[in-house]
Every structure is written in structure tokens, then in C-alpha cells.
Design a protein that fits this description.
The protein is an alpha/beta fold. The protein contains ten helices and ten strands. It has a single domain, classed as P-loop containing nucleotide triphosphate hydrolases (Rossmann fold). Bound molecules: adenosine-5'-triphosphate and magnesium ion.
Length: 270
């Protein structure tokens, strides 16, 4: 069924280089290609430093100054992002792509209430009055199992736990109706209860069927719960990409087998 949904994101032969300390250049992403349809979750796993976050950042046009895309192109809804000016890209970033990061604290302004930030983001995204924006914000927070959304609206980021903030961030993403959601380690900093809440929220976005989701996680349980297709990265390359069941049952690449074994090992210890 998903296969009939339109392709939202296409990454073609992407390569990224960084300038190292000793003037040497290293290719941290090499010839990476994948596509994601609406309602589909692509899970990306791989060891630390394998280029997962760099890939995400290049889609957002937010690579650090030391990094540069040297090859490839990125197409969002039939539009090539690589050809756009920084200004055009900013518009798309706000309107069509939402980002959820590992540390939600960094996504919020510490001296502005949650409600004000929520409302401002909504209105920057789509013209609407204050009252409508406030209603939408409260509804979105309520849907995301945040109790007493009216109170949350009046609170400052430091008054909420990491798990609550993460849910606020996802609630905000959800209400923006993005065509692409990029979640880079969205559950890593969370306890099991909050982790499950976030999984449920991403599942809800997926179910709406309108958003393509790029989900980076070290946690194979999170990947198993959400991903339709999984890409395994190692040293800047995708070494294996397959439907989640196939990859979990019959991993082909040695590195994927190692990952799955490590998971079983951790299970036995818990
Ligand atoms: N700002 C930067 N400038 C230069 N090199 C960087 C920068 N950030 C990351 N790198 C390098 O780019 C490579 C890929 O990093 P990336 O952050 O994409 O890895 P990752 O797969 O997301 O790892 P992790 O699982 O730890 O988040 C690494 O070798 C890293 O050292
Ligand atoms: Mg990363």
C-alpha cells in the first residue's frame, strides 16, 4: 500500500566532505542514496560517526561550516533542494520539513514560555490569528498526552522534564503538518516511559499518511517499532538497505549482523 504513496524525499548519490584539523579532507558521507514516501519511515542505524547526522543536516541545508556537499542531489516533493538559495531553503525548512533532535532543550528559547514559542512557530508557518494559533497549540499538546496543556503553555522550558519537552517538540512538529519529519535520535535521552510516548507520537504522525519520516536511532527497538525500511550506515556509506522484517530476520552485511547480535547480548543482560 505504501508503495503507491508519492515519493516525498529523494537523496541521490550524496557525498559530504569535512575539513579536518590538519587541512586533510575526509569524506564523511559517500554516495548515499535513498527515498522516502509519504507515510513511510526510513530508519537509519549505524555506529557513531558513520555520517547519520551529517546526512540529516544536509537535507536541511544546515551542514556545519567545515562540511560541504561535494556530490549528489536532494529532491523534496519534486523540487531540487540543492539548487536553492539559502533564503529559499529557509522557507522550505520552516514550511515543509520539521526536525526533532536528541536534546529538546536546544530547540527552545530558555527565556520564552512554551506557549509563546509554539504560537510564534505556528504563525510563522502559516498566517493565522493569535486565538486560532493558541487553540491549535493547546489541541496539539493535549493530543500528545501532555496533561494540562494550558499550564504547559505558560511554563518555561526549564520547568519541564526532558521527556515532556521532547513531546512538546513533537507536538509542534505534528501541528505543522510537514511533508518530511527528520528525527535524529529522538529517544536517546529519554526514560522508557517517555521513550514509549515518543514512539506512539511518531507512529501517530506516520498513520496520518502525509509525512515522510527519516528516523535515526541507535535503538533497534525503536527502529523495529517504527521503521518500514532500514538503512545501515558504516563509515559514511549505506552498507545495507532493506525492509525492516527482512533486515532483522536475514541480515546480509556483517556489520548488520553485529548490530543485531549486540542487541541480543544486551537483552540477555537486562
Ligand atoms: N562540525 C563538524 N566538523 C567536522 N567534522 C565533523 C563535524 N561534525 C561531525 N564531523 C565528523 O563527521 C563524521 C560523521 O559525523 P556524524 O555526526 O554524521 O555521525 P553520526 O553517525 O551522526 O554519529 P552519532 O551516532 O555519534 O551521532 C564523523 O567522523 C565526525 O567526526
Ligand atoms: Mg548523530
Amino acid at each position: 500500500m505504501l508503495m503507491n504513496n508519492p515519493v516525498v524525499l529523494q537523496v541521490n548519490e550524496l557525498s559530504i566532505r569535512v575539513q579536518g584539523a590538519e587541512e586533510e579532507k575526509t569524506e564523511v558521507v559517500q554516495n548515499v542514496s535513498f527515498q522516502i514516501r509519504s507515510g513511510q519511515v526510513l530508519g537509519v542505524v549505524g555506529e557513531s560517526g558513520s555520517g547519520k547526522s551529517m546526512t540529516c543536516m544536509s537535507i536541511l541545508g544546515l551542514l556545519p561550516p567545515t562540511a560541504k556537499m561535494t556530490r549528489g542531489n536532494i529532491v523534496l516533493n519534486d523540487r531540487s533542494l540543492t539548487a536553492l538559495t539559502p533564503r529559499q531553503l529557509r522557507g522550505i525548512r520552516g514550511r515543509e520539513i520539521s526536525l526533532v533532535l536528541q536534546n529538546p532543550m536546544t530547540a527552545f528559547n530558555p527565556v520564552v514560555t512554551i506557549g509563546k514559542q509554539f504560537i510564534e512557530t505556528l504563525r510563522a508557518h502559516q498566517p493565522m490569528g493569535m486565538k486560532v494559533a493558541k487553540r491549535l497549540a493547546i489541541d496539539a499538546l493535549g493530543k500528545m498526552t501532555l496533561q494540562d496543556p494550558e499550564k504547559v503553555m505558560q511554563q518555561y522550558p526549564f520547568e519541564l522534564s526532558g521527556g515532556m519537552l521532547q513531546r512538546v517538540m513533537i507536538a509542534l512538529s505534528l501541528s505543522l503538518n510537514p511533508s518530511l519529519l527528520i528525527a535524529d535520535e529522538p529517544t536517546t535521552a529519554l526514560d522508557p516511559v517517555n521513550k514509549n510516548n515518543v514512539i506512539e507520537m511518531i507512529r501517530a504522525i506516520k498513520k496520518q499518511g502525509k509525512t515522510a519520516i527519516l528516523l535515526v536511532s541507535h535503538d533497534l527497538d525503536v527502529i523495529g517499532a517504527l521503521a518500514d525500511v532500514v538503512a545501515v550506515m558504516k563509515e559514511g556509506r549505506i552498507v545495507e538497505i532493506a525492509p525492516v522484517d527482512e533486515l532483522f530476520i536475514r541480515p546480509k552485511h556483517e556489520y548488520t549482523k553485529l548490530l543485531l547480535d549486540a542487541r541480543l547480548f544486551a537483552r540477555n543482560w537486562n
